[in-house]
Amino acid sequence: MQNLRFTLVGLAAVIIAFTAINMSGFFEAEAPPQFISPDPSDVKLVNTGQVIYADHCAACHGEELEGEKDWKKRRADGSLAAPPHDETGHTWHHADELLLQIISQGGQAFMPKGTSSNMPGYGEKISMREISAVLAFIKSRWPLEIRDRQQMLSRQQQLQKN
């Protein structure tokens, strides 16, 4: 009888420990989204990105990546208009990782104090691969010199992180 009691207590302890570990996220079912390089030379990725851009981005940022008129001026509500994503805008001034985060989380999370953004986050609507595809499409439209500069920024940021 005493052995049965020790066995049951031991089994209960194992179940409690397993439950605590599982609830802490130790055995998470889903891995966090991985960084996928938005490679503008990957034709399949770019073509996928072009379709997604047309569906989710072109209404604000323009079919030709031209952005909204007067994009540098604040609107009446204090927000900025959607900037161009072609070489005339500032998108290429940012590293890939930041651009992917902005698309995923929305613009407001990255705005300086006192400014606002109406850009929604797309991380709940499209996958990280699709977000990377959109950025690959955008980058594919930049002149080679601009692409090279932006790629250098992305590499520098990765080196600083490591």
Give me the secondary-structure topology.
Blueprint: H1 2-23, H2 43-56, H3 58-61, H4 96-105, H5 128-140, H6 144-161
Helix pairs in contact: 2-5, 4-5
Q: Quick summary of this structure?
A:
With about 160 residues, this protein is mainly α.
Per CATH, the class of the largest domain reads: Mainly Alpha
Distance between the termini: 59 Å
Quickly count the domains: 2
The radius of gyration is: 23 Å
- Give the low-pLDDT segments: 6-32
Please, what is the average pLDDT?
83
Give a count of the beta strands, DSSP E runs of length 2 or more: 0
Net shape:
globular
> What structural class do helix, strand and pairing data support?
mainly alpha
Structure notes:
- The protein is mainly alpha-helical.
- It has helices spanning 2-23, 43-56, 58-61, 96-105, 128-140, 144-161.
- 20% of the residues are buried.
- Residues 6-32 have low confidence and may be disordered.
